[in-house]
Structures are given as C-alpha cells and as structure tokens.
Amino acid sequence: MLSICVSNPLEITMEKLAKRVGITKPTLYKYITYLSRAELLHHIVFDAKRFQNLQKPDKLYLNNANLFNALCINSNIGTIRETFFVSMLYKQHLVNYATKGDFLVDEKYTFEVGGRNKSFKQIKDIENSFVVSDDIEIGFGAKVPLWLFGFLY
Fold first, then answer.
1. Whole-angstrom Cα distance, residue 127 to residue 104?
2. pLDDT value of position 137
3. Most buried one in 24, 41, 52, 145, CB count within 10 A?
4. How far apart are CA 93 and CA 79, in angstroms?
5. Do residues 87 and 42 lie in contact, with contact meaning Cβ atoms separated by under 8 Å?
C-alpha cells in the first residue's frame, strides 16, 4: 500500500512492485485481487484492453482519498484528485483509463482531471469530453468542479 502512496498510478509496474515488496508476481496478483475485493484498492484497466482478461492492473489507486491521510507520508496531489474521482464513480459506472484524457467512463465520456488551471489541450478533439478541476467553486462549459462528483457516491 505504501508503494502506491508514493507513486503515480502509471509508474508502478508489476515487476517493480513485486521486487519492492519482496514477493513473486503471481502472489502479488493475488494480493491485488484481495485488496480490490476488500475495497482498499481500485484497479483501473486501459480502455483498449477492457474486453480482454488481463492479469496486470494498468493503474492502481487507493480506494478513497481519505486513505492517503492514514497511510501516506507524502502523496501526489494529482494522484489524490484522480483517486477521489475514481472512488466517486466506480460503484455506478464503468471506469477505464484512455490514451487521451485520464478516464473513459461508461465507454462514452472522457474526463481529464487536474487543478484550477487544467486546460482542454489533451482532450480538445474528443466528443463528450470534460475537464474536472479541483480548486474551483463553479463550472462553466465543459469544465466541472471536482467536488461535484462527491454527490454521485
């Protein structure tokens, strides 16, 4: 869990994580499955691979942003934002990550998660795309405040 605290979601490979923890990859896969079932981790699959049975998680997040305060000494604000977003959507929606934007939700909506100044540059040509911004009180156009997703839980 601490390795997830200090890493960005895509920085963790199964090889690195297994070596860091001191276990084999098959054992690590089991642990990730158990932690996901216990709702301590979220495992987000890449959009293009969502129809295949993969053993390798593409992105690992703590189950909710509150766990960062309990488990992590240092944490990346971008990871905390993405963790909050995923934790609010996963119960009712299919969440994958995509090549453009951070997340593809229900195979239709693309979301780019960031801070107040996050631009539309990464998702400008994508239909049904939105920027989810932290540190704003009200949205405008396709820019939505991150805190509003808390009402979906």
1. 12
2. 95
3. 41
4. 20
5. yes
Whether the pLDDT of residue 80 is over 60: the answer is yes
Could you tell me which of 73, 108, 113 has the C-alpha nearest to residue 93?
108
d(CA 75, CA 147): 19
Residue 56 clears pLDDT 50, i.e. is over it: no
Nearest 10 degrees: CA dihedral of 80, 133, 12, 55? 100
Tell me how far apart the alpha carbons of residues 25 and 18 are, in angstroms, rounded to a whole number.
Answer: 6
Given a cut of 70, whether residue 10 has pLDDT beyond it is: no
Instruction: Tell me the sheet residues that pair with 42.
Output: 61
Structurally, the chain folds into a number of domains equal to: 1
Range of the domain at 62: 2-152
Per-residue model confidence as pLDDT tens digits over 102-121 = 999 999 999 999 999 999 99
Which of 63, 69, 56 lies closest to 82 in space, CA to CA? 63
The residue type at 63:
N
Q: What is the DSSP pairing of strand 95-97 with strand 109-114?
A: unpaired
The two tokens of residue 86 are 């995923």
